[in-house]
Design brief:
The protein is mostly helical. The chain has a single domain, classed as Urease accessory protein UreF. 70% of the residues lie in helices and 0% in strands. It has 12 helices and no strands. It is globular.
Length: 231
């Protein structure tokens, strides 16, 4: 019982919006979607957040689960392979930038939380040396495994992070209230178990994230003048 309370506390810590990995700097394309009026109210925001969650569920989520399993197996090569394949899977520069910046920050924090882990220290060294991209989902998989958290915990946190990043950004650039965003989060949370049931059986060949409109919006943001967020 006491161990589970500690694990739940760590799950809350790693999923908190104030956890210092820089999620507040990114909107996952929402800023441009708002500017282009693709997202303009609570209903369209929910559609956008659901699409982003599904996109992450079968790409970032699959990679995070693979990294979690590789960490438990002590397989550093599998971590590097997962990391490189996930980055290659991303279609726009801002998505790659977001994952790499957040991933390195989490790795740097992770070595302070788990100083005994040679696997994590070596992975951070690989990032610094340019031998691996250092993506955020892989960092999540490593840290959650080291913290004794389950695959279910990891996947819930991964999905929560994607959804909450968008909803937090929406409060600054879409005409919605805190009530709207909390209702959206409540509804989308109920969809995570089905996504997990599918993602846990997937490997790299099964990964998919085809949401072309979001990638187009991200490409427009790279050249746009509206800049509240990095992505």
């Amino acid at each position: 019982m006491n161990q589970r309370i500690t694990a739940l506390t760590r799950l809350l810590q790693f999923s908190d919006a104030t956890f210092p990995v820089g999620t507040f700097s990114f909107s996952n394309g929402l800023e441009t979607a708002s500017y282009e009026k693709t997202v303009h109210d609570a209903a369209t925001l929910e559609q956008y957040a659901r699409a982003a969650a599904r996109q992450a569920a079968f790409s970032d989520g699959v990679a995070a689960l693979a990294a979690h399993r590789a960490t438990l197996a002590g397989d550093a090569e599998a971590l590097r392979l997962t990391d490189s394949r996930l980055i290659l899977f991303k279609m726009n520069d801002e998505a790659r930038l977001m994952l790499r910046r957040m991933g390195k920050k989490l790795a740097e924090l992770g070595v302070k939380l788990f100083p005994e882990s040679k696997l994590l220290a070596d992975w951070l060294a690989d990032i610094d040396a340019g031998r691996t991209p250092g993506s955020y989902p892989v960092a999540q998989g490593i840290v959650f495994a080291l913290a004794g958290l389950s695959e279910e915990d990891l996947y819930a946190s991964s999905q929560y992070g994607v959804i909450n990043m968008i909803l937090g950004a929406a409060l600054r650039c879409v005409r919605v209230s805190h009530y709207d965003t909390q209702q959206i989060l409540f509804r989308l949370a109920a969809e995570i178990p089905d996504l997990f049931a599918e993602a846990r059986e997937m490997d790299f060949a099964d990964m998919n994230c085809f949401v072309p409109e979001m990638d187009i919006l991200a490409s427009l943001h790279e050249k746009g003048a509206m800049r509240m967020f990095m992505s």
